[in-house]
Amino acid sequence: MSGVETAVHLAVILLVPPLLLGVIQRTKARVAGRRGAPLLQPYYDLVKLARKDVVLSRTTTWVFVAGPAVGVATAVLASLLVPFGERVAPLSFAGDLVLFAYLFGLGRFFTVAAALDTGSSFEGMGGAREVTFSALAEPALFLALLVLVTLHGNLSLSGVLGEDTGARWVTAVAPVALASMSLFVVLLAENSRIPFDDPTTHLELTMIHEVMVLDHSGPLLGAVLWGAAQKLFVQSALLARILVPLPDGPAPLRWACFLAAVLALGVVIGMVEATMARLRLRQVPMLLIAASLLSAFGIVLLVR
Amino acid sequence: MSLLLLLSLIPLTFALVTFATRTERLRPWLVLAAAGCQIPVVGFVLVSRERFAPLAGSWIGLDPLGVLLVGYLSVLFLCCALYVPPYLRLRRERPNRIFCTMLLVFFGMMNFFLVSQHVGLMWVAIEAMTLSTGPLLYFNRNRRSIEATWKYLLIGSVGIALALLGSFFLGYSALYAGLESSLMLGDLKLHAASLSKPWLHAAFVLLLIGYGTKMGLAPMHTWKPDAYGEAPGLVGALLAGGATSCAFVGVLRFYSICVAAGDAAFARELMLGFGLFSMAVAGVFMVRQRDYKRMLAYSSVEHMGILVLGTAIGGAGLFGALFHVLNNGFAKGVLFLSAANIHRQFDSKSTDEVRGALRVMPASATLFLLGFLAATGAPPFAPFLSEFTILRAAVAEQRFGLAAAFLALLLLVFIGMGATVLTVVQGDPPPGRERPATERVQKLVPIVALLALVLLLGLWMPQPLESALWSATAVVEGRP
Amino acid sequence: MSVVLALVAVALAGASGLPGLVLPRDDAAADRSAALLLGLAALCGAAATALVAVAGAEQTLALPWRVLGERIEVGLDGLSAFFLLPTLGIASVASLYAVAYWPARSHVRSARRLRLAFGLIAGGAGLVVIARHAFAFLAGWEIMALAAFFSITAEDERDVVRRAGFIYLACTRASTLALFGAFAALHSVDAGFALRARPALDLDTSRALFGLAFVGFALKAGAMPLHLWLPGAHATAPTHVSAVLSGMLLKIGIYGIVRFASLLPPLAVSDGVFVLVLGMASAVLGVAFALGQHELKRLLAYHSVENIGIILMGVGLALLGRTLGHPEVEQLGLAGALLHVWNHALFKALLFLGAGSVIRQSASGEIDRLGGLARRLPLTALAFGLGAVAICGLPPLNGFVSELLVYLGLLRASLLTGGALGLLAVSGVAALALVGGLAAACFVKAFGVVFLGEPRTAAAAGAREAPPVMLVAMALLALACGVLGVAPQLAVPCLEAAIRSFDPGLAPRLRDAAPFGSISIAAAGLLVSVVAMAAWARWRRLRYAPRTVTWDCGYAAPSPRMQYTSSSFAAGLVGLFRWALRPQLEAPHFGAGPFPLPAGLHTELPDPVLDRLTLPAARWLVHASTWFRWVQRGRVHSYVFYILVAILVGFLAARGGLG
Amino acid sequence: MSELLNLLLVIVLLFNFLMLGTSRVRAVIDAAAAQGTLLGVAYLTMHGASGVRALALGVAMIAIKGVLIPRILRSALRSQGIRREVEPFVSFTTSLLLGALATGLSVIFARTLPLAGEDANVLLIPASLATQLTGFIVLTTRRKALTQVVGYLTLENGIFIFGLTLVEAMPFLVEAGVLLDVLVAVFVMGIVVDHISREFSSIDSDELTELRE
């Protein structure tokens, strides 16, 4: 790992995630037969929001501000654990996958707390849904990562997402496929994508993530969107590294390959969003538990 | 040897003097004086105990069991005697001549029992003990106390009668074997091996039931809740700590004959059965017990069960049982005397009317609570050590089922007793009784002394006491 | 030296209530002197722990005290020292808190008694930890247990308190009796009461011994099916006592399990599996039950069950590792369990103290009657928030470190063993992940509903910040949480000393096995971003940002009662665990007709072991025992008849001889 | 010698039946008194020749069991003004049958016992057992407290019969002490019965059931 690559890594996590959102939205529009917003629309939104003033609810405290900020901080920190284009992530140690999951937990804790800080029943409802689904998503995420851990005999993300990923596809296709499916479900659930949530809905009662940030405005709302995009990007990166083994070439090639893979995953997400309908809320847990079971099955296949 | 008779003669003399005394206020102090005079004599006897060891052909003597119990009894009686003057000062409406006299007679008879080395003499002493306690129970002179006295006398006498029959059987077992007929304990143990087994067995059954009635083993315990419930707390303490312990000594003496006869197995099984049954009965009747004095009676039943259980296990178990005699007696003293204070204050024995004692009389209630903890074997109080010793003896003998049953019953008893005790001491006092009582120091000193004894024995056992316990164990089990 | 220090510390702690006995009942000096003595005790204990961590070797001291001919010894090794520190530390912080929380002036009835008992809890627990002989151990154990009983029932005029106290008392006696059995069995092995290793013991005996001891200790620790006393006692005790119960008393149960295991040779695989599975069940069900609670302290109590479960998972791993010969699993499991003992002591005490200050300042512990307290008790809110983050195991606080160690142990175990054991370890990981998610849900609910939003009652609206002493006590704990979270290396010497005394054959190398450095980096990164965030907020002058109402979806008259309540918040998750929790739901009835009647929703979450199993069984037993009462119905005739029957039975029993 | 003893014992047994069959309390007391006297006589016939000590004891026995104790009981009876035992728990006929059964069983059971020398030939052991059982029957079936005292006395008498086999083993003092104890026991019980009748206005002991669970 070189200093340059760490800098690139930081630059990518700070700058690229909105592009992924743009790709997804564009894909959705295209599938629906619309032309869609420009790819860079999320960036425009962020800049616009950053320039606005903040208006706060009278009820709120520092927690309300902490929510979006922690969201960004944890997403960036979590990204440092995942190897993007490099071979080894900037921060890598045995058990870093636990930190990976728990960082998102921390972000969620503060997002939900910020929602409750407003005293609005809608935002409380959104928070309740968020924690309910994420409590189920957490084991699914862990089990999916455990498939990789078992497969590689290594306890760090950089270790399980190393060069031999491709080889593993050959030797243990079924477990890896199962884990990938499971991770994909977790990715959709954690990032409030269809079929779990609809980021474009306009009815508070049906929202999950969006309803929690109703009261955030200006730069705070910008931070929320930015952090959410980063989270999506990091988790997509994780999945992309599993699905698409990096070529054994020079650094620029690897990075390009990685970015292409992530954006391609964005296209897939967009396709899913465009073609699927939202699940009813009470079916969500079923799907998450099913995702856990997929990974568990993968582990059973490996351990036997 | 005649000095031994002094042990019972001192109290009896004082009893005479007390009976002859005309001043009501003097008599309680005479009781205390008797207890005080007894102490140096007991001290001397204990120090030079070898001189008083039972000789062949002598009716009285001080065997190791007697050594243990005589010392214990004098301490217990002293503590109870300390309680007599403040108690009777509160009961000025009652003439106390009979009460004080009989207290001393009772004490004298207990000592006489302990030094007797003749089966018949033991019987005479224990029957006299029973009879002398009748008036003590009837001190309150109301319907309930007369009923209790009646039941106590009748059941006690029937039990004692059976003990007499057992004593005769014991004699007959010698006679049948063609030995020179004798009811001397020494002779019986000497020739134990040649005693007629069937008669010996039958004798032991009857003696165990007879003396067990006095101990209050279930199912012969039926007099106990009534008597302890209606007697003044002081008498309850002496009965539960003194009379029952003497009866237990009786059982041990007959058991030691069985051991000497090489035929202890059946006696052990029998005691095991009675022990467990007593503990179980006590536990069952303690659950939801509203009357806290009756509860103490059942606790006594339980502890008698523990005593015979320990004896049945043998070895360290017997050691524990003997130790438990002391611990139980002192702990019961704490409980009965503090319960008496509470009873006096609230004028009721029922938990329906007695609540929040900690608020009204903090000292007595605290002592009652601590006494409960001590009696149920909470470390570091001494009953813990004795019960634990019995338990580990059971485990060492590989009797795991027995150990488990023992523990389960202890838990049952603790829960049952705890519910009642806590109802009494905790919470708010019933309406009209909230005013804090003035607690007289004289009525607390004896209780504190007893509690201190229980705690002290749990933390540190004097070497002489330990050797006395071991030699008593050895004598009962016929080991040198 | 160290053992003498420890002994002094224990004595100081035990005697901390004594000055109050001679001072007037309402004298605040009594509280201060107790806090001072306990503080001194904690300092002595800390010094002793430090000495052990540096010097390592075990020190024993034979006391001039003999019981039944046995010489009583005390000693201090790594394990003892490791538990001694939180025992005295938490007690001293809680007693500091009590100076303002339970002042003698306003609790004349109970203050003296409570102060005495409180010191005795710490003293008794300290004696347990340093005891090297069964009698001293049991004496300390019972002193601790009974003192805890008296502390729990400080407000014995309340029915619920007496009830909870009695259930506790029954349970603690059951556990003591189980320990009697265990020590009796230990004695039967080699006629010794000393707590020393018995490496030559055969497997069956060891297992039996461990089983007995485990029942006793787990009952005290409150592992899942044996937790029945825990929620009630924690909820009704004075809050600083709850903090000590949860922070320290439960841990003594864990100490017992670890100590007993260390005395025995390696147990069977199934024992480790059993402890691990019990820990998993305890963790998952504990947090699930916590979710459905309405009362802040009861909620915290169920979280103790959960955290004890996590600790037991670590212990189970350590046992498995020792049996299977995987030193890495052993040391990771044990280190995780032990560190979680410290951590849970810190953050749970912090949470309880926070809850206490909420209860004191707003006169209610009902979550749904609170709200908006962060604006009224800002420092308490900060402390409670930190505690909540820590207990959820979230970085950068201490809970994360110990959970990570347990995770690592599980992961290593799954890699090293494979097969059924590997799957078990994997399910352990999943369980821990689920627990993490549920705990976060539960605490975001507790924190959010209590401290955020609008106050739901007038009392909550009028609440003010807690007195400084209480805040200082909380700050101490919060600081410790932070320090252990950012620099867990500080605990390594103590941990390694403890692991060495658990298994002398193991040379622990925790720094290699666990990524403490990286944890520090990550935590530091988070801290930096917190600082950056605060700087940004200041720069943007967010404090002076224009204020308006919360978005109300167009409904013009919102009231605080319309906020999402804790019950509604948890309803989804409780619904998911309906099969295990079996909540009792009183559904709202709106009535027929065009105009709905006033209606309410009421949910109740009865404890499965206590309310559904133990109490009905106890009621049945009481009923059955009253049936026996007819035996003693006052007729002297029947009493004589019983004697006759006894004779017959006696003769029948002795028939062999008679015939 | 043993024929005389047997005759005495048969009479003792007959008094047992009288005690069980009559409803008059006075008659029950008399029967117990007669039994006591007969025991004294039996004692004298067995051991009277062996010395002054035995003679004195025999006389004392007759005096206490045959005269003093019955006198106490009779005076108690007079002061209470009762005459009959009404409605025992078990009817008189049934008690008689029970008594007969007990006697029969005693005789059969005594056969199976290992007895020394001449004891096997005399009725000593069966009579003892039967009398004890009679005492138990009275104790457990009669309502009046006074009758129960007599039951106790009968039990004691039965035990005394057994004691006749063992005179050598019992020192004089002990024997006297036993007698004295029995006397005092009955005396104390008499006092208690007296107090009961004052407190309860009857001596039906099944009224004495206030103390119960």
Structure described in brief:
Chain C is mostly helical and 659 residues long. Chain C contains 26 helices and five strands. Chain D has one domain.
Which band does the percent of strand residues of chain A land in?
under 5%
Low-confidence stretches of chain B: none
Series of secondary-structure elements of chain A, N-terminal to C-terminal: HHHEHHHHHHHHHH
The greatest interface here is: A-C, 79 and 84 residues
List keywords for this structure.
heterotetramer; C: 659 residues; mainly alpha; two-stranded antiparallel sheet; two-stranded antiparallel ribbon; 26 helices; 5 strands; 70% helix; D: 213 residues
Describe the secondary structure blueprint for this structure:
The complex is a heterotetramer of chains A (304), B (480), C (659) and D (213).
Chain A: H1 3-15, H2 17-31, H3 41-51, E1 56-57, H4 62-79, H5 96-117, H6 121-152, H7 157-160, H8 165-171, H9 173-190, H10 209-212, H11 218-243, H12 251-275, H13 284-303
Chain C: H1 2-14, H2 18-22, H3 28-55, E1 59-67, E2 70-76, H4 78-101, H5 111-130, H6 134-152, H7 159-190, H8 203-221, H9 230-236, H10 239-263, H11 269-291, H12 296-324, H13 327-362, H14 378-391, H15 398-417, H16 419-451, H17 458-461, H18 468-486, H19 492-502, H20 510-513, H21 516-539, E3 547-548, H22 566-576, H23 578-581, E4 584-586, E5 602-604, H24 610-627, H25 636-653, H26 655-658
Antiparallel strand pairs in C: 1-2, 4-5
Helix pairs in contact in C: 1-3, 1-4, 1-5, 3-4, 3-19, 4-5, 4-10, 4-13, 4-18, 4-19, 5-6, 5-10, 6-7, 6-10, 7-8, 7-9, 8-10, 9-10, 9-12, 10-12, 10-13, 11-12, 11-16, 12-13, 12-15, 12-16, 13-14, 13-15, 13-18, 13-19, 14-16, 14-18, 15-16, 15-18, 16-22
Chain D: H1 2-21, H2 25-47, H3 52-80, H4 92-112, H5 124-141, H6 145-163, H7 172-200
Helix pairs in contact in D: 1-2, 1-4, 1-5, 2-3, 2-6, 3-7, 4-5, 5-6, 6-7
